[in-house]
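Ex. 9. Protein: Band 7 protein.
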Amino acid sequence: MADIDDYEDDAMQYAPDRRLLHYTSAALLSVLLLMAAILLWNRMVISIKSGEAGVLYSFFTGTDQGNIYGEGVHLIWPWNTMHIYDVRFQTREQTYSLLTNGGLAVNLKVAIRYQPDIRMLPLLHVAVGPDYLEKVVFPETEAALRRAVGQYGPEEVYTSHRGFLETVVVGSLSKMENRYIIVDDVLVKSVDLPNTVRDAIERKLALHEEEKAFQYRLSIEQKEAERKRIEAQGIQTYQQIIAKSLNPDLLRWQGVQATRDLATSPNAKTVVIGAGKDGLPLILGGDR
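Predicted structure tokens for Band 7 protein:
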């Protein structure tokens, strides 16, 4: 009986210690779990913003090619990785040094508007990766520009063929969709030529504009000369028609009418009838 009593006394003595150890273990485990959650929060809780899409890479199975993760919050295992892509239209500028058909070097500054094909995003991630701009877009654009610029001279590239050049380049880059990238447009922002070549082209263009202005002025003068010729022919024809109807009796009658009008005028002073040649009235005096 004494041994049993001693055992019960020992059990009652160590019971608080076991409870304290249990609480301490639970608290320590909670702290460890909290720290792990804090440390792994960014790897487990993935936020995909508007205009973005995600591709999941699993440590055990590789890239998940069957799912594209849209905007929102996603929970993943900490040993997996979510690769986030911007799927909006983006614009990047790049400068290329190219050769014309005559071997002259020109520098083209272009703006490329592109976006990844969201339908093929997992395939893009597997085949190219997130740095597809440097690996595909820029090199393919340079190759298309070299083919297009090599067909023209420096003046054509510098002036009228620039819009056509953009069309050719965009048409060539349409094949890039096979690499899961969409190139919407390529805009030529500036063309830099050697100073001597640029000055020569600008002088030629200025002279061409002056020639067109001279041709325009010459055309105006020719039309004015034609107008005066037609006017002179009209006056001549009028005079010929009037000359056929004039005779001495009509002229005397017109003289009488003019004399009467002058006689009734407040400025008329002296009228001498029959003093002029052919008996026409002679008017003397004035309003003073």
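Check your answer against this statement. Residues 65 and 123 are 7 Å apart (CA to CA).
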